[in-house]
Amino acid sequence: MNLSINTYVLPQSFGYSKKKIWKDTIAYIVFLLIFALAFWYGTGKFFTEDYYYPAILIIMPLASVVVFILAIKQVLLLRKNAPVLVLTDEGIYCNTKDFKDLGVIKWTDITRCFSSPESMFGNVSVDTNLQIHVANADVYLDRMRDTVKRTKIMRQAAKKQDNALLWVNVAHLECDMNNLKKTIFELSDKNQNQQNFINLN
């Protein structure tokens, strides 16, 4: 979904992309088949031959379990139909378990928005994490009635660059990261300029 400051219509909702999820799920299944083949060969065709590789007996099962768990997580995402991110006239709302209690984050409060790397398979990483920063984070954190959750978010935020208030992985959302950031920038600037104009008058 491509948005533009000249053509956007609010509210805009971004849910999970079934196409992206299935693409990753199929990739995980392919990995599992490769691991199974490697295990079959590494064990001397299930110990029917005179050779086997001990390292494969350990590595392949562990790798298979990790990939299987990732595949299951992908399949579970297919059941989620509710939007994850919602852009409204007032601001941005993140409908995830960790951040939905923050409510709508006003455009006029947003100070920064950028993407950060998400670790994928060791040292490989891609910019799929959207981070939102605000000037008055305490106002939003105080909306969280669950003190355990609030403490958890505050600890995680401290590890983020410049203490982000909100972060969400958009890799599987029905949106393009660059277009999404551009829209957030423009809506934030537009609303802040309007607010400054009101304050001056």
Keywords, separated by commas or semicolons:
7 strands, three-stranded antiparallel sheet, alpha+beta, 201 residues, single chain, 47% helix, four-stranded antiparallel sheet, elongated
SSE layout:
Layout: E1 12-14, H1 18-42, H2 44-47, H3 54-77, E2 85-87, E3 91-94, E4 105-106, E5 110-120, E6 124-134, H4 137-141, H5 147-159, E7 166-169, H6 177-200
Provide a brief overview of the structure:
The protein has 201 residues and is an alpha+beta fold. 47% of the residues lie in helices and 19% in strands. The relative contact order is 0.16.
Structural account:
The protein has 201 residues and is α+β, with helices and mostly antiparallel strands. Helix content is 47%, strand content 19%. The protein has a four-stranded antiparallel beta sheet, with helices on one face. Strands 5-6-7 form a three-stranded antiparallel beta sheet, covered by helices on one side. Helix 1 (18-42) runs antiparallel to helix 3. The protein is elongated and about 85 Å long.
Q: Summarize the biggest pleated sheet.
A: 4 strands, antiparallel
Radius of gyration: 22 Å
**Biggest β-sheet: strands ordered side by side in the sheet:** 1-2-3-4
Strand % is 15-25%
The number of helical elements comes to 6
Order of helices and strands: EHHHEEEEEHHEH
